[in-house]
Amino acid sequence: MKGKFLFHKIIALVLITMFISLFTCGIAEANYSYKYNDYISFLFPDENYFDRKNFKDFLNSFNNFTKGLNTRSDYNTTKKQMINKILDLRDNYSESSVVSNISTRLLNTILADNSNSTTNLIQTILKQISSLFSSTITTISADETVKINSDTATQLAGNDYSVELSANIYYAGGLDDNGNPKSDKWVVLIHGFMMNGQAITDAVGEMYINQGYNILAPDLRGSGNTGGKTGMGYLESLDVFDWLTYINERFPNNSNKILVHGVSLGGATTLYLSGLTVNNRSIKDLNVIGLVDDCGYTSMTGIIKDLLGTVGDSELVSTILGLFNKDGLDNLLTDDQIKNFVINYVDVGLTQDNYNEKQDALNSLKNCEVPILIIHGTEDTTVPYKNSETVYNEAMKISTIPYVQRFSAEGEPHAFIVVGNQYNVYEGHVQNFITKAESISAGNTTDKESDYVEEKEEKGSTLEKILKTLILFKDMLF
Predict the structure, then answer these.
(1) Burial environment of residue 334 by CB neighbours within 10 A (0 to 12, 13 to 18, 19 or more)
(2) What is the reported pTM?
(3) Which of 18, 128, 397, 407 could be bridged to 375 by S-S, CB 3.0 to 4.6 A?
(4) How many Å separate Cα 119 from the centre of its chain?
(5) Closest Cα partner for 198 from 220, 178, 177?
(6) What angle separates helix 52-67 from helix 75-91, to the nearest 10 degrees?
(7) Would the CA dihedral through 26, 327, 264, 403 be positive or negative?
(8) Closest listed residue to residue 470, CA positions, set 415, 413, 420, 425
């Protein structure tokens, strides 16, 4: 029995290692015959997320080919050469919808060209390639990049978690003559896995800029220009607390109003942050007036069990489960096994003494004193929709939370706003929430449960969504 239990435990640790490294964006290349795209497609079922390398490779190849064409060649010959090259390249990516869309667009441009000038044709195509790389969707340029030390994580989790934190700042109305922001409104945008501060700003920043909000967009641990390793939300919440402190200390203004908006890992981070108090200061003391939780999970143990419960179709997993007569990995592992593994092998900043309390973000939410907007796609297979139901039900019971608004996006997948799905509906919710949060911070009262009637969705084209995705990840590609 002892030997069987040891084997059971070893197998459990092997499987947890595989999926935790996946979950925290660690090694992606080839464990257990998994390829990079298998990992990405597991986290992001929408192919728009993991087809971006094909997009880059295709455009680079065709760009180099076009630059090498002789401008003195016959016009019609050059046209044929371009068309044949696109068709040849496209055959290399026969399963890529992104390449199919982009190649069709290029072919249409070539076929429609009637300039009868080889030079003009080449210049037209090179210009289009350039525009496809940058997309027609505007990227918001950072006004400055700032760095601070992770003082709160160092204080509460220890020196092992001390890193230099980096964030971009975007000023809504510019600076005054004294170098201070003209607006005293701020939003801290917290990105998800495999993203960074620029990517989350490109996704939702414009809707805040339009409302006069400056943006501070941190690169979370292990992302962008911030050191360390990606955690699971708790350490990140301590870092966001440092950024809130930074805003208040650099721009001391009693009228500062700060919102925090997180997506995916950022949503979980927002929940961990919701009731955080450090050195007798709460986030409300730091002028936070509202929180937006977009598809965040409610606990570390819970999200690991949810993830493991969705991956029974691999041959390795099925074989191992068969040894134990189990239907899923979530039934194979106990909470204590998950706890011990997370503490020992994942950089989350927790110990045996505080894991049970701190790993559950609802324990933080119980101390929240500001309004909250809860967003989640009903078809989210990465962070199940039930997480948002739990947050909503708990928030409605907590007397110190003055206002609760909810956006259940019917039929949408995980982090749907990243590719621009239901953008106008999403923006409408955000605008309404801003109005309510500002009113409450000014001392006005409102019904706790929102009666906001959302807008109808405006459908965008598939190509538009693909380009939106690609521009969000451009900093990671180039």
Answers:
(1) exposed
(2) 0.71
(3) 407
(4) 42
(5) 220
(6) 150
(7) negative
(8) 420
